[in-house]
Specification:
This protein is of the alpha/beta class. The protein folds into two domains: 99 residues, Urease, subunit C, domain 1 (Roll); 307 residues, Metal-dependent hydrolases (TIM Barrel), CATH 3.20.20.140. Helix content is 30%, strand content 23%. The protein is globular.
Amino acid sequence: MMLLKGGRVIDPSQHIDEKRDILIENGKISTVEKDTPVAETECIDVTNMIVTPGLIDMHTHLREPGHEYKETIRSGTEAAVAGGFTAVACMPNTQPVNDNRSVTEFILKQARCSNLAHVYPVAAISRSSEGKILTEFGDLHDAGAVAFSDDGQPVMNSRMMRSALEYAHSLGLPIISHCEDLFLSQGGHMNEGFSSTQLGIEGIPTIAEDIMVMRDIALAEYTRTSVHIAHVSTTGSVEAIRGAKEKGIKVTAETAPHYFTLTDEALLDFSTNAKVYPPLRSAKDIEAIKEGLKDGTIDAIASDHAPHSSIEKDVEFIFASNGLIGLETSLALSLKLVDEGILTIATLIEKMTVNPARILNIHKGTLEPGSDADITVIDPQRRWTVDINTFRSKSRNSPFDGWKLKGKAVMTIVGGDIKYREL
């Protein structure tokens, strides 16, 4: 038994936001009550801390199998628990691609061996994510996949996307769409705008994302299914998703901290660690993302943790791979939204717990008695400096190195076991 005593418990799934004690027994939440007697149990004082359901990151890249020199499932889940995440969903662009039962089962086996955060595999929509032949959705679902995506590669064929939406809907699983028109983005390396002109680098117009967001919304409406839009980065995407929700179309969306924190001006020194995909956009787009988070257009915040080694990053800008690592900075960067008055702390926690769980249709993101004791303890006043050399991730590609941040996960509990602790 374990008792977390004296913390401010925020559980949006139960509309709780007050000082309570959490009793854990046999890996489950036993009670969430006021003034629980200590009795004979391990008591942890979490006074002045915020206690939430375990954070869920619904968009990560763990690189295993195939690119273990960048990240492994073990190192990725070590980074996850250090960042306060008790569960992550991993994208299928491994080598080989997670497009069959054996790869899905391998990922789950490695996650069990690591015994840190829960890992939920996202399987590919198409074989090898080539956009030509659909994968075996039913078999992948039986193997443990919780969603389908060709993340990193858009499904350009609209007929295939229609079929994917319909098949996934029949299984009760989401399609996570990477929205990009390859013909519009071809040859680009950063956002098309003033900064790309200054640098003399071919840009990627925002319309490359907007058009595909609109297409997938139209397909979801026509087929009466649902679609989840990944890593939203543009004003046009936010407006399209907002309009779709107002019409009652079943669309959900996520964004990542770098899309409400950095603009394309971060690339003016040719920083490859700030080269991501979709690319960093303009200040106008950042404001739209923040407004979308505030009014509920954007449902979730995910890190889009994308580890790369120096082999891919310490090269000329146009040859550098896209992506940054985010599991260990995501929470603190997101807490800035609270300090700015964009979100309440309860709304932020909702976007990092219950909403991702709802979208992925997994029974997580709650402190309801009887549920798994997956818990994150946050010190909202902890001030710390980002030091990439202390990261648990195997990679170091973060543009936030040296940033001074406020707010940090100081304890991560998974299934009643403490997996990370700074208290």
